[in-house]
Amino acid sequence: MILASNPLIQVTPGLMIWTIVCFLITLYVLKRYAFGPIQKTIDERRERIRQSLVEADHAREEARKLLEEHRKLIAQARVQAEEIRADVRRDAEALRERVREETDADRQRRIEETKRQIEAETRRALEAIRAEVAELSLFAAEKVTRKSLDDKDQRRLIDEAIGELDFSVLERND
């Protein structure tokens, strides 16, 4: 047997005991000075990871709440903007209506003023025509009678001539 001749494969009870004793001593030393700190480091890391996950969940929840608030604020801003636009439209319409009414009132006032001016000018023109007719009547009467009339006769002839004239035709052409 070739295997039995190899000293590493041979079972030697003294060597076996010393191997077990060395193993146990090494296991004790590792457990006391290596496995404890390693396990503590692993536990601390596990706790940091768990804490990070909790914080991430909390941050995600907070971000979701902020997003909801942001969406609500945007919706409120849109509603307020629509209200402002509606108010501006109402104000613009009221202003437009007021300007239209003022323009109509001003136009009507100007028309009335123009009518009054036309009536005044018509009256003045009629008075001028009457005066001219009176002068022409006196002139014609003097030519016909070949004499000069006294004031009383002139006034009577003028009143008769003016009374016979129809000025209503001129007044209707307004």
Question: What does this 3D model show about the protein?
Answer:
There is one protein chain. By secondary structure, this protein is mainly alpha-helical. The chain contains 3 helices and no strands. Helix 1 packs across helix 2 (151-164). The longest helix has 133 residues, at 13-145.
Helicity level: over 70%
The backbone outline, from C-alpha atoms, is rod-shaped
* Count of DSSP strands: 0
Largest sheet: none
Class from secondary-structure proportions: mainly alpha
How many helical stretches?
A: 3
Uncertain regions spanning at least 5 consecutive residues: none
**What fraction of residues sit in β-strands?**
under 5%
Radius of gyration computed on alpha carbons: 63 Å
Mean pLDDT rating: 86
Terminal residue distance? 154 Å
Helix and strand element order: HHH
Label this structure with key terms.
mainly alpha, rod-shaped
